[in-house]
Structure formats: C-alpha cells, structure tokens
Amino acid sequence: NEYPVENFEFHTHFEGVAGHSHGEGASAIVQMRFHGVGRMRRALESFGYDVRKIIPATMSTIPADCAAVLDVNPRATYLPGESDLLLDYLARGGAAILMYDLGFVLEPRLTAGLRKVGVVVEQDVVIDPLDHYSTDPEVVAVPVYERHPITRSVALTFFPGIRSLTLLPPPPGVTSGPLFLSSPQSYTRAVPTVAERQPGRDNAAAPSATAPGGPGRRILAAALEGAWPGAGPGSKPFRLVVVGDGDFASNSFLPYMANSDLALAMVRWAVREEHAPTVAVRMPVPRLVLLTKSQMQRIFLAIEVVLPLCVVAAGVLVWWRRR
User: Which CATH number fits domain 8-289: 3.40.50, 1.10.1060, 1.10.8, 3.90.550?
Assistant: First the structure.
C-alpha cells in the first residue's frame, strides 16, 4: 500500500510554501522529499527490531512470525483481499498499528472489521482552537493523555491534520479505550474524500452518523486488545492501535517534541514489550523550542504585559515614597 518510504511519500499538503495549510483546501496527491518514514524504520532497527516490508496483495497470509503490522499513512485504498488478510491476522492473535491520515479511504471490509471490534475512523478533520501547535488550529497538540502503558512517559506531541475516531461499545472479550483526546473546545469539519472532490459534484461532505456534533473532546487514537469476535476458544488475544494521523511519525515530524516516544511506545506495546526498559531514540535535529498557542500567549502576557506593569508599579511606588 505504500510507495518507497525511505525519502518519499504521497502527502496531503505542501511544507514551507506561501499559504501552507494542513486543511482540506491543501489536500492533493503530491510527492515530497524527506517525508517518508525512514527515520522511524531506522529507530526501530536501532532497538533490535527486524523491520521487513510486506506486500499483502501478493500474499496468501501474513506470516505467523510477524510480531506486529505497522501501516503508516498509506495512500492507496486496500484491496478487499488485503483487508481480509489483515483482519485474519488479527483474528489469529496478531498485532497492528494503523496510522490512517485524512487522505486515506478505508475499504468497506476493513471498515466493517474495525467496527466489529468497536472503532470507527471518521472522515473529518479535528480543529482545536485551544491546544494546537504554533498558530494553526488544525495541527492539534496533545499535552495530556489517558492512562495506558503506551502513554506512561510521553510528553507533548502534535498531529498535523488529524481525523477523529469513534469508540463503540466493544464486543465481549475485547477491551478498548482512548489513548489521547483533543481539548473540550475542539470541533470537527467533515472532509470529502479525494474521489468526491470532482467538478460537477456537491463537495459538501455529509456529517458522520457516529461522530458527536458541536464542540467537545474528540478521540484521536485508541488501543484495543482481547479475543477477536468469532475466534475459537483459547485463541491468542490480538492487539490493535488506531491513530487518525500518520504525519506525526513521518521524517518531518517524528524527531520533534515527543512524537518519536509516542510512536515507538505504540510499537513496544503492540509486540508485548511494554514492560521493557524505555530508551529514548536520538535523532539529529536543529535545537528548537516548540510551543503551543496557549503557551505562547501565556509567555507573551508575562513578558509583554505583566513584567512592564510590575516595573511601572515599582516606579510609582518609589516616586510615592520620595515625593
């Protein structure tokens, strides 16, 4: 489902150009250098993982020695047979980390399989006026997390153009829960798929029947585990992580903030090594101080407003005592 990922990927926005945006207006199938997931692959290999590329369309089954399937930001919709292969692998007790960006269209069998265990990937973009990186409310920042082994020691992360998830009541034997959510002020905007954005079509996307309306916290990632529905007694439990964005794990964003810590923690949990010692991966990047909009506002108020007022107040006090 991917083109060569070392230095290329099909992306949904242009970086570093005038009018740059992660919104639906900037979505297009484009090829960008240095946007692949080669950095994540090398990070996994540095921890001793054997990373291999598989092509499900040419396979009859996912190998049993595959500890986990990692699919980061695929661009092409699965073939029905590929969806069946992935779901069969999970039913046999496999593990998967699925990072589905806004431009990815889920194949109907995959949608039904995920809904079967209680997770729905919505066709919308989350906009967070409170917690976001820099001044772009579509680059959602996450400062706090739900309690889970994956998020045990993860700091601030950010997600360019993330879609929301909906958790349905899980079937018996399956445990599900959110990993992190947007702020209470966030809301979603429905985004039509690329195939629907054609001349002569009504490009207004229909609102989801499962996604909540109005401002409120949105689930951005979820973890599920347990016995796959319909699996035989004594079957090995599956583990599944679903994230509404894959850009955060790309070469462009993985080294910044705690994005790499979160991505690698998902892999460790999927392969059942969450109790192993946590080692941070080192990636050479320029030294930057990255802040959310609310953090920048607080710093601005403290330096540009409160501090000058304190100096003025101190001057008035000295004048009052000496007059």
Answer: 3.40.50
pTM above 0.85, yes or no: no
Do 99 and 243 contact (CB within 8 A), yes or no? yes
Tell me the average pLDDT across 56-61: 91
In a 10 Å sphere around its CB, with 0-12 CB exposed, 13-18 middle and 19+ buried, how is residue 212 labelled? Answer: middle
pLDDT-based confidence at 256, cuts 50/70/90?
A: confident
Q: Is 16 exposed, middle or buried (0-12, 13-18, 19+ CB in 10 A)?
A: exposed
| Contact assessment for residue 131 and residue 184, using Cβ atoms and an 8 Å cutoff | no
Tell me the domain boundaries of the chain: 8-289, 291-323
**Phi (first) and psi of residue 174, to 5 degrees:** -115, 130
291-298, long-range: CB within 8 Å, 24+ apart, which pairs? 291/134, 292/131, 292/132, 292/133, 292/134, 292/141, 292/143, 292/156, 292/158, 293/130, 293/131, 293/132, 293/133, 293/134, 293/135, 293/137, 294/130, 294/131, 296/134
